[in-house]
Fold this sequence. Notes:
Elements: E1 2-7, E2 10-15, E3 21-24, H1 35-49, E4 59-64, H2 73-86, E5 94-99, H3 111-115, E6 124-127, E7 136-141, E8 147-151, H4 152-155, E9 159-169, E10 173-175, H5 188-195, H6 218-231, E11 235-243, E12 249-255, H7 257-272, E13 273-276, E14 280-286, H8 296-299, H9 301-306, E15 310-319, H10 329-337, H11 342-351, H12 355-369, E16 371-375, H13 380-385, H14 394-399, E17 405-408, E18 415-418
Parallel strand pairs: 3-17, 4-5, 4-9, 5-6, 9-11, 13-18, 14-15, 14-17, 15-16
Antiparallel strand pairs: 1-2, 7-8, 9-10, 11-12
Amino acid sequence: xxxxxxxxxxxxxxxxxxxxxMGLLTxxxxxxxxxxxxxxxxxxxxxxxxxxxxxxxxxxxxxxxNTRLWARGDLYVPVILDTLKLIGVPExxxxxxxxxxxxxxxxxxxHASLVGDGTADRVEILNSANKDISRLTYKGKTVHxxxxxxxxxxxxTDHVIIFGGILHHIIAGFGGGRxxxxxxxxxxxxxxxxxxxxxxxxxxxxxxxxxxxxxGNPVHEDMASAAEVFLKNKTSTLVAVAAxxxxxxxWAGTGDYKEQFLKGCDQVNRAGSVLVKELGDFxxxxxxxxxxxxxxxxxxxxxxxxxxxxxxxxxxxxxAECREGVGSEIFEKLLIQYKGNxxxxxxxxxxxxxxxxxxxxxxxxxxxRYRVTLISSFSKDVTENLGFHxxxxxxxxxxxxxxxxxxxxxxENILPIIEK
Length: 420
Protein backbone atom coordinates (compact mmCIF):
# COMPACT_ATOMS: atom_id res chain seq x y z
CA UNK A 1 0.00 0.00 0.00
CA UNK A 2 1.24 3.48 -0.91
CA UNK A 3 0.43 6.23 1.60
CA UNK A 4 1.17 9.96 1.66
CA UNK A 5 2.02 11.46 5.06
CA UNK A 6 2.14 15.20 5.67
CA UNK A 7 5.51 16.44 6.82
CA UNK A 8 5.83 20.18 7.29
CA UNK A 9 4.47 21.69 4.09
CA UNK A 10 5.47 18.63 2.05
CA UNK A 11 4.26 15.04 1.70
CA UNK A 12 6.27 11.90 2.35
CA UNK A 13 5.47 8.84 0.23
CA UNK A 14 5.78 5.50 2.02
CA UNK A 15 5.05 1.95 0.93
CA UNK A 16 3.95 -0.76 3.36
CA UNK A 17 3.14 -4.40 2.55
CA UNK A 18 -0.62 -4.96 2.63
CA UNK A 19 -0.32 -8.01 4.88
CA UNK A 20 1.37 -5.91 7.57
CA UNK A 21 -1.43 -3.33 7.81
CA MET A 22 -4.15 -3.80 10.42
CA GLY A 23 -5.78 -0.52 9.49
CA LEU A 24 -5.39 2.91 7.92
CA LEU A 25 -6.87 5.08 10.66
CA THR A 26 -8.34 8.26 9.25
CA UNK A 27 -11.70 8.53 10.98
CA UNK A 28 -15.03 8.75 9.19
CA UNK A 29 -15.40 10.90 6.10
CA UNK A 30 -17.26 13.89 7.50
CA UNK A 31 -17.56 16.85 5.11
CA UNK A 32 -16.46 20.29 6.21
CA UNK A 33 -19.00 23.05 6.74
CA UNK A 34 -18.83 26.19 4.64
CA UNK A 35 -18.13 29.62 6.09
CA UNK A 36 -21.74 30.60 5.44
CA UNK A 37 -23.09 27.55 7.28
CA UNK A 38 -20.94 28.12 10.36
CA UNK A 39 -21.69 31.85 10.32
CA UNK A 40 -25.45 31.22 10.20
CA UNK A 41 -25.26 29.01 13.30
CA UNK A 42 -23.26 31.65 15.14
CA UNK A 43 -25.56 34.51 14.14
CA UNK A 44 -28.75 32.69 15.07
CA UNK A 45 -27.27 31.45 18.34
CA UNK A 46 -26.02 34.89 19.40
CA UNK A 47 -29.40 36.47 18.60
CA UNK A 48 -31.32 33.79 20.46
CA UNK A 49 -29.01 33.37 23.44
CA UNK A 50 -28.03 36.97 24.23
CA UNK A 51 -30.14 38.09 27.21
CA UNK A 52 -32.47 41.07 26.91
CA UNK A 53 -30.85 44.31 28.02
CA UNK A 54 -27.33 43.21 27.10
CA UNK A 55 -27.00 46.21 24.79
CA UNK A 56 -26.52 48.32 27.91
CA UNK A 57 -23.99 45.98 29.54
CA UNK A 58 -20.31 45.15 29.26
CA UNK A 59 -19.41 42.11 27.16
CA UNK A 60 -16.16 40.13 26.95
CA UNK A 61 -15.36 37.73 24.12
CA UNK A 62 -12.81 35.10 25.17
CA UNK A 63 -10.83 33.72 22.22
CA UNK A 64 -7.96 31.21 21.78
CA UNK A 65 -4.36 32.13 21.09
CA ASN A 66 -2.27 31.08 18.10
CA THR A 67 -2.05 27.43 19.22
CA ARG A 68 -5.69 27.06 18.12
CA LEU A 69 -5.68 28.84 14.76
CA TRP A 70 -7.65 25.97 13.23
CA ALA A 71 -10.78 27.27 15.03
CA ARG A 72 -10.60 30.25 12.62
CA GLY A 73 -11.19 33.09 14.99
CA ASP A 74 -10.06 35.34 12.15
CA LEU A 75 -13.28 34.40 10.33
CA TYR A 76 -15.80 33.92 13.11
CA VAL A 77 -14.99 36.52 15.77
CA PRO A 78 -16.00 39.25 13.27
CA VAL A 79 -19.30 37.36 12.78
CA ILE A 80 -19.89 37.55 16.55
CA LEU A 81 -19.08 41.27 16.59
CA ASP A 82 -21.32 41.99 13.59
CA THR A 83 -24.21 40.11 15.20
CA LEU A 84 -23.84 41.93 18.51
CA LYS A 85 -23.82 45.23 16.65
CA LEU A 86 -26.94 44.17 14.74
CA ILE A 87 -28.86 43.53 17.98
CA GLY A 88 -27.84 46.90 19.37
CA VAL A 89 -24.67 46.35 21.41
CA PRO A 90 -22.26 49.30 21.03
CA GLU A 91 -18.74 48.17 20.20
CA UNK A 92 -17.37 50.39 22.96
CA UNK A 93 -19.02 47.98 25.42
CA UNK A 94 -17.10 44.97 24.05
CA UNK A 95 -13.61 43.70 24.87
CA UNK A 96 -11.74 40.68 23.53
CA UNK A 97 -9.48 38.74 25.89
CA UNK A 98 -7.07 36.25 24.32
CA UNK A 99 -6.98 33.12 26.49
CA UNK A 100 -3.26 32.50 26.84
CA UNK A 101 -3.25 30.10 29.76
CA UNK A 102 0.50 29.97 30.43
CA UNK A 103 1.49 30.74 26.82
CA UNK A 104 3.37 33.86 25.72
CA UNK A 105 1.62 37.18 25.05
CA UNK A 106 0.22 37.59 21.56
CA UNK A 107 1.50 40.80 19.99
CA UNK A 108 -0.65 43.14 17.92
CA UNK A 109 0.85 41.73 14.70
CA UNK A 110 -0.98 38.47 15.47
CA HIS A 111 -4.38 40.04 16.09
CA ALA A 112 -5.57 39.73 12.49
CA SER A 113 -4.85 35.97 12.44
CA LEU A 114 -6.54 35.50 15.82
CA VAL A 115 -9.67 37.66 15.61
CA GLY A 116 -9.83 39.05 12.07
CA ASP A 117 -8.43 41.87 10.03
CA GLY A 118 -9.66 45.24 11.29
CA THR A 119 -11.05 43.92 14.60
CA ALA A 120 -8.44 45.89 16.57
CA ASP A 121 -9.97 49.08 15.13
CA ARG A 122 -13.40 48.09 16.45
CA VAL A 123 -12.83 46.83 19.99
CA GLU A 124 -10.08 46.62 22.61
CA ILE A 125 -8.00 43.42 22.46
CA LEU A 126 -6.12 42.22 25.54
CA ASN A 127 -3.99 39.25 26.49
CA SER A 128 -5.10 37.34 29.58
CA ALA A 129 -3.13 38.17 32.72
CA ASN A 130 -1.12 34.92 33.17
CA LYS A 131 1.61 35.96 35.68
CA ASP A 132 0.64 39.66 35.89
CA ILE A 133 -0.81 39.67 39.41
CA SER A 134 -1.82 43.32 39.08
CA ARG A 135 -4.45 42.21 36.53
CA LEU A 136 -5.86 39.27 38.50
CA THR A 137 -9.01 39.10 40.63
CA TYR A 138 -9.57 36.43 43.28
CA LYS A 139 -12.90 34.64 42.77
CA GLY A 140 -12.84 31.91 45.41
CA LYS A 141 -12.05 28.19 45.59
CA THR A 142 -13.14 25.33 43.35
CA VAL A 143 -14.45 21.95 44.51
CA HIS A 144 -10.87 20.64 44.48
CA UNK A 145 -9.53 23.60 46.43
CA UNK A 146 -7.93 25.50 43.55
CA UNK A 147 -7.64 29.19 44.40
CA UNK A 148 -9.14 30.80 41.33
CA UNK A 149 -7.60 34.05 40.11
CA UNK A 150 -9.10 35.43 36.89
CA UNK A 151 -8.03 38.16 34.46
CA UNK A 152 -9.58 41.36 35.82
CA UNK A 153 -10.79 42.76 32.50
CA UNK A 154 -12.68 39.54 31.79
CA UNK A 155 -14.25 39.59 35.23
CA UNK A 156 -15.40 43.21 35.04
CA THR A 157 -18.17 42.33 32.58
CA ASP A 158 -21.82 41.30 32.63
CA HIS A 159 -22.00 38.88 29.70
CA VAL A 160 -19.30 36.42 28.63
CA ILE A 161 -19.01 34.93 25.14
CA ILE A 162 -16.55 32.06 24.83
CA PHE A 163 -15.36 31.31 21.31
CA GLY A 164 -13.12 28.37 20.46
CA GLY A 165 -12.59 24.83 19.34
CA ILE A 166 -13.34 21.58 21.15
CA LEU A 167 -10.80 18.78 20.77
CA HIS A 168 -9.28 15.84 22.62
CA HIS A 169 -6.89 16.96 25.37
CA ILE A 170 -4.20 15.04 27.22
CA ILE A 171 -5.31 16.00 30.74
CA ALA A 172 -8.66 17.81 30.44
CA GLY A 173 -10.21 14.98 28.42
CA PHE A 174 -11.44 17.62 26.00
CA GLY A 175 -10.19 21.14 25.37
CA GLY A 176 -12.62 23.99 24.84
CA GLY A 177 -15.67 25.31 26.68
CA ARG A 178 -14.93 25.63 30.39
CA UNK A 179 -11.18 25.32 29.67
CA UNK A 180 -11.12 28.82 28.16
CA UNK A 181 -11.90 30.09 31.67
CA UNK A 182 -9.64 27.72 33.58
CA UNK A 183 -7.02 27.57 32.22
CA UNK A 184 -7.50 30.16 29.48
CA UNK A 185 -8.00 33.42 31.40
CA UNK A 186 -6.87 32.20 34.83
CA UNK A 187 -3.71 33.26 36.62
CA UNK A 188 -0.56 31.18 36.38
CA UNK A 189 -0.71 29.78 39.92
CA UNK A 190 -4.38 28.80 39.53
CA UNK A 191 -3.51 26.95 36.33
CA UNK A 192 -0.70 25.02 38.02
CA UNK A 193 -3.02 24.04 40.89
CA UNK A 194 -5.56 22.75 38.41
CA UNK A 195 -3.05 20.84 36.31
CA UNK A 196 -1.41 19.28 39.38
CA UNK A 197 -4.58 17.19 39.78
CA UNK A 198 -3.22 15.12 36.88
CA UNK A 199 -0.81 13.46 39.33
CA UNK A 200 -1.44 11.00 42.17
CA UNK A 201 0.24 11.43 45.55
CA UNK A 202 2.79 8.70 44.70
CA UNK A 203 4.12 10.69 41.71
CA UNK A 204 2.30 8.64 39.07
CA UNK A 205 -0.24 9.95 36.54
CA UNK A 206 -3.92 9.81 37.52
CA UNK A 207 -5.54 6.98 35.51
CA UNK A 208 -8.70 9.01 34.80
CA UNK A 209 -6.72 11.95 33.41
CA UNK A 210 -6.53 11.20 29.70
CA UNK A 211 -7.95 12.08 26.29
CA UNK A 212 -11.69 11.72 25.71
CA UNK A 213 -12.50 11.14 29.39
CA UNK A 214 -14.53 13.49 31.61
CA UNK A 215 -15.99 11.01 34.11
CA GLY A 216 -13.92 10.92 37.29
CA ASN A 217 -11.32 13.22 35.73
CA PRO A 218 -10.33 15.67 38.51
CA VAL A 219 -8.75 18.15 36.08
CA HIS A 220 -12.02 18.45 34.17
CA GLU A 221 -14.09 18.58 37.38
CA ASP A 222 -11.92 21.41 38.66
CA MET A 223 -12.22 23.33 35.38
CA ALA A 224 -16.01 22.93 35.41
CA SER A 225 -16.13 24.17 38.99
CA ALA A 226 -13.92 27.16 38.13
CA ALA A 227 -16.30 28.09 35.30
CA GLU A 228 -19.23 27.99 37.74
CA VAL A 229 -17.37 30.22 40.20
CA PHE A 230 -16.38 32.73 37.52
CA LEU A 231 -19.78 32.87 35.81
CA LYS A 232 -21.79 33.29 39.00
CA ASN A 233 -23.88 36.47 38.57
CA LYS A 234 -22.92 36.67 34.88
CA THR A 235 -24.68 35.48 31.74
CA SER A 236 -22.76 33.53 29.13
CA THR A 237 -22.78 32.00 25.65
CA LEU A 238 -20.47 29.40 24.14
CA VAL A 239 -19.64 29.59 20.43
CA ALA A 240 -17.94 26.27 19.72
CA VAL A 241 -16.50 24.54 16.66
CA ALA A 242 -15.01 21.07 16.09
CA ALA A 243 -12.70 19.70 13.40
CA UNK A 244 -12.78 16.44 11.47
CA UNK A 245 -9.80 14.13 10.94
CA UNK A 246 -8.45 16.49 8.29
CA UNK A 247 -8.54 19.48 10.63
CA UNK A 248 -11.55 21.07 8.88
CA UNK A 249 -14.47 22.54 10.82
CA UNK A 250 -17.45 20.21 10.43
CA TRP A 251 -19.60 21.19 13.43
CA ALA A 252 -20.57 24.44 15.15
CA GLY A 253 -22.86 25.19 18.07
CA THR A 254 -23.89 28.35 19.90
CA GLY A 255 -25.79 28.56 23.17
CA ASP A 256 -25.58 27.36 26.78
CA TYR A 257 -21.92 26.70 27.55
CA LYS A 258 -22.46 23.37 29.33
CA GLU A 259 -24.86 21.99 26.75
CA GLN A 260 -22.85 23.06 23.71
CA PHE A 261 -19.59 21.81 25.23
CA LEU A 262 -20.97 18.29 25.77
CA LYS A 263 -22.48 18.29 22.27
CA GLY A 264 -19.09 19.30 20.91
CA CYS A 265 -17.35 16.50 22.84
CA ASP A 266 -19.70 13.97 21.26
CA GLN A 267 -18.95 15.40 17.83
CA VAL A 268 -15.19 15.27 18.42
CA ASN A 269 -15.47 11.62 19.38
CA ARG A 270 -17.57 10.95 16.29
CA ALA A 271 -15.04 12.55 13.97
CA GLY A 272 -11.77 12.00 15.78
CA SER A 273 -12.04 8.56 17.39
CA VAL A 274 -11.61 5.19 15.70
CA LEU A 275 -12.44 1.85 17.30
CA VAL A 276 -9.74 -0.79 16.80
CA LYS A 277 -10.20 -4.47 17.66
CA GLU A 278 -6.67 -5.38 18.73
CA LEU A 279 -3.32 -3.90 19.70
CA GLY A 280 -0.77 -3.39 16.97
CA ASP A 281 2.91 -4.29 16.81
CA PHE A 282 3.80 -0.97 15.21
CA UNK A 283 2.37 2.34 14.05
CA UNK A 284 3.49 4.69 11.30
CA UNK A 285 2.18 8.15 12.11
CA UNK A 286 2.31 11.79 11.09
CA UNK A 287 1.49 14.68 13.37
CA UNK A 288 -0.40 16.16 10.42
CA UNK A 289 1.99 18.61 8.79
CA UNK A 290 2.65 22.28 9.50
CA UNK A 291 1.50 23.91 11.85
CA UNK A 292 0.74 20.79 13.83
CA UNK A 293 4.34 19.61 13.50
CA UNK A 294 6.00 23.01 13.73
CA UNK A 295 7.47 22.20 17.15
CA UNK A 296 8.25 18.88 18.81
CA UNK A 297 6.37 19.91 21.96
CA UNK A 298 3.14 20.46 20.02
CA UNK A 299 3.68 17.37 17.87
CA UNK A 300 3.77 15.00 20.84
CA UNK A 301 -0.03 14.99 20.97
CA UNK A 302 0.21 12.52 18.08
CA UNK A 303 2.22 10.17 20.31
CA UNK A 304 -0.27 10.44 23.16
CA UNK A 305 -3.08 9.51 20.79
CA UNK A 306 -1.20 6.58 19.25
CA UNK A 307 0.39 4.47 21.98
CA UNK A 308 -2.86 3.13 23.57
CA UNK A 309 -3.48 1.18 20.33
CA UNK A 310 -0.13 -0.65 20.55
CA UNK A 311 1.44 -3.59 22.33
CA UNK A 312 3.99 -2.69 24.98
CA UNK A 313 7.38 -2.41 23.26
CA UNK A 314 5.88 -1.70 19.83
CA UNK A 315 7.62 0.36 17.15
CA UNK A 316 6.43 3.88 16.27
CA UNK A 317 7.71 5.65 13.16
CA UNK A 318 6.89 9.29 13.87
CA UNK A 319 6.91 11.96 11.13
CA ALA A 320 7.10 15.51 12.55
CA GLU A 321 9.26 18.09 10.81
CA CYS A 322 9.75 20.41 13.83
CA ARG A 323 11.06 23.29 11.71
CA GLU A 324 10.67 25.61 14.73
CA GLY A 325 12.69 23.34 17.00
CA VAL A 326 11.67 21.67 20.25
CA GLY A 327 9.32 24.49 21.25
CA SER A 328 10.01 24.58 25.00
CA GLU A 329 13.32 24.97 26.80
CA ILE A 330 11.99 23.21 29.90
CA PHE A 331 10.62 20.31 27.85
CA GLU A 332 13.89 19.94 25.92
CA LYS A 333 16.06 20.06 29.05
CA LEU A 334 13.98 17.44 30.84
CA LEU A 335 13.88 15.03 27.89
CA ILE A 336 17.67 15.04 27.93
CA GLN A 337 18.14 15.02 31.70
CA TYR A 338 15.57 12.39 32.70
CA LYS A 339 15.82 9.86 29.87
CA GLY A 340 14.36 6.60 31.20
CA ASN A 341 13.79 8.02 34.69
CA UNK A 342 10.13 8.99 35.01
CA UNK A 343 10.10 8.19 38.73
CA UNK A 344 12.45 11.03 39.61
CA UNK A 345 10.54 13.44 37.38
CA UNK A 346 7.20 12.38 38.87
CA UNK A 347 8.48 13.36 42.30
CA UNK A 348 9.50 16.75 40.94
CA UNK A 349 6.01 17.28 39.51
CA UNK A 350 4.46 16.67 42.94
CA UNK A 351 6.57 19.47 44.40
CA UNK A 352 6.02 21.96 41.58
CA UNK A 353 3.68 21.17 38.68
CA UNK A 354 3.92 22.82 35.29
CA UNK A 355 2.57 21.61 31.99
CA UNK A 356 5.90 21.50 30.12
CA UNK A 357 7.30 19.21 32.81
CA UNK A 358 4.20 17.01 32.73
CA UNK A 359 4.37 16.62 28.94
CA UNK A 360 8.08 15.75 29.25
CA UNK A 361 7.19 13.17 31.93
CA UNK A 362 4.60 11.54 29.68
CA UNK A 363 6.88 11.56 26.61
CA UNK A 364 9.81 10.05 28.54
CA UNK A 365 7.45 7.31 29.75
CA UNK A 366 6.36 6.57 26.15
CA UNK A 367 9.99 6.51 24.94
CA UNK A 368 10.84 4.02 27.70
CA ARG A 369 7.97 1.69 26.82
CA TYR A 370 7.98 1.92 23.02
CA ARG A 371 10.68 2.24 20.37
CA VAL A 372 9.95 5.62 18.79
CA THR A 373 11.91 6.60 15.67
CA LEU A 374 11.56 10.30 14.86
CA ILE A 375 11.73 11.60 11.29
CA SER A 376 12.32 15.34 11.64
CA SER A 377 14.61 18.23 10.75
CA PHE A 378 16.81 17.40 13.77
CA SER A 379 20.23 15.87 13.29
CA LYS A 380 21.00 12.33 14.43
CA ASP A 381 22.80 13.60 17.55
CA VAL A 382 19.96 15.91 18.56
CA THR A 383 17.31 13.26 17.90
CA GLU A 384 19.06 10.65 20.01
CA ASN A 385 19.95 13.13 22.72
CA LEU A 386 16.23 13.84 23.10
CA GLY A 387 15.61 10.12 23.62
CA PHE A 388 14.29 9.14 20.17
CA HIS A 389 15.73 6.67 17.69
CA UNK A 390 16.97 7.89 14.30
CA UNK A 391 17.04 6.52 10.77
CA UNK A 392 17.91 7.90 7.34
CA UNK A 393 16.73 4.72 5.59
CA UNK A 394 12.95 4.98 5.96
CA UNK A 395 12.13 2.39 3.30
CA UNK A 396 14.48 -0.12 4.89
CA UNK A 397 13.02 0.60 8.36
CA UNK A 398 9.47 -0.06 7.11
CA UNK A 399 10.54 -3.20 5.23
CA UNK A 400 12.01 -4.67 8.43
CA UNK A 401 8.99 -3.99 10.67
CA UNK A 402 7.78 -7.13 12.42
CA UNK A 403 4.17 -8.13 12.93
CA UNK A 404 1.16 -6.02 11.93
CA UNK A 405 0.27 -2.45 12.75
CA UNK A 406 -1.54 0.77 11.97
CA UNK A 407 -0.93 3.77 9.74
CA UNK A 408 -2.29 7.07 11.09
CA UNK A 409 -1.78 9.93 8.59
CA UNK A 410 -3.03 12.66 10.96
CA UNK A 411 -2.39 11.27 14.43
CA GLU A 412 -2.95 14.57 16.21
CA ASN A 413 -6.60 14.47 15.06
CA ILE A 414 -7.31 10.75 15.46
CA LEU A 415 -7.63 8.88 18.76
CA PRO A 416 -7.70 5.07 18.40
CA ILE A 417 -9.84 3.41 21.08
CA ILE A 418 -9.66 -0.32 21.76
CA GLU A 419 -13.07 -1.89 21.27
CA LYS A 420 -14.23 -3.55 24.49
